[in-house]
């Protein structure tokens, strides 16, 4: 399958570099925010250990931590360009909002948040394929194909497809043997 995007386009390359720089800035902000969270924990639990932690302090701490998680997911989304990564960012943002609802918030806000999360899971299950919903960063398949090559022509992609076919064939063969054994068992029980 040929890409219709010109990889030599200067404006696309500049946009990609700028996007990478923005992702690094967000990652730096998350790192600095982590230091701030550690400082908040030190102050609340170590320095002022004689006084119990108040609800507002714990709420503020959880809000800060969840905001950092959203920042990390945003970096992943900017780096990977997967629809599933966008859903992860939205999921964490909605979960943060639900966990940090003020005590005075009505049930309508909570219900809307739960419906939103259910909608995201439905989108993830029914509208995304396995190829574009992968969340595991370590299993991402980077396109190693040479320019002008399709995945069928690329040696690495061909080997991956052959391994997947062999795995599927092995699973099908096991299912056939199990089915045959069950049928043979049924026939011997009938006799």
Brief descriptors of the model:
mainly alpha
Describe the structure.
The chain is mainly alpha-helical and 191 residues long. It has helices at 10-47, 55-80, 83-99, 107-126, 155-190. 4% of the residues are buried.
Reading the helices and strands in chain order gives HHHHH
**Residue share in helix:** over 70%
The termini sit apart by 56 Å
Total helix count?
5
Cα shape: extended
Q: What profile does the largest beta sheet have?
A: none
Secondary-structure-derived class: mainly alpha
Provide the gyration radius in Å: 25 Å
Mean pLDDT: 79
Low-confidence stretches: 133-144
Approximate strand percentage: under 5%
Q: Tally the beta strands.
A: 0
Secondary structure topology:
Blueprint: H1 10-47, H2 55-80, H3 83-99, H4 107-126, H5 155-190
Helix pairs in contact: 1-2, 2-3, 3-4
Task: Offer a quick outline of the entry.
The protein has 191 residues and is mainly alpha-helical. The chain has helices at residues 10-47, 55-80, 83-99, 107-126, 155-190.
């Amino acid at each position: 399958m040929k890409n219709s995007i010109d990889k030599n386009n200067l404006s696309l390359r500049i946009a990609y570099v700028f996007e990478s720089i923005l992702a690094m800035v967000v990652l730096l902000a998350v790192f600095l925010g982590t230091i701030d969270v550690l400082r908040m924990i030190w102050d609340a639990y170590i320095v002022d250990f004689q006084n119990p932690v108040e609800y507002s302090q714990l709420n503020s701490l959880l809000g800060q931590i969840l905001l950092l998680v959203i920042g990390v997911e945003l970096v992943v989304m900017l780096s990977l360009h997967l629809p599933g990564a966008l859903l992860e960012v939205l999921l964490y943002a909605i979960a943060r909002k639900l966990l940090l609802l003020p005590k005075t918030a009505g049930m309508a806000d909570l219900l809307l948040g739960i419906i939103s999360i259910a909608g995201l899971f439905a989108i993830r299950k029914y509208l995304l394929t396995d190829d574009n919903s992968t969340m595991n960063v370590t299993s991402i398949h980077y396109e190693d194909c040479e320019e002008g090559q399709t995945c069928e022509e690329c040696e690495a992609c061909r080997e991956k497809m052959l391994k997947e076919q062999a795995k599927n064939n092995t699973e099908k063969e096991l299912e056939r043997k199990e089915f045959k054994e069950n049928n043979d068992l049924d026939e011997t029980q009938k006799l």
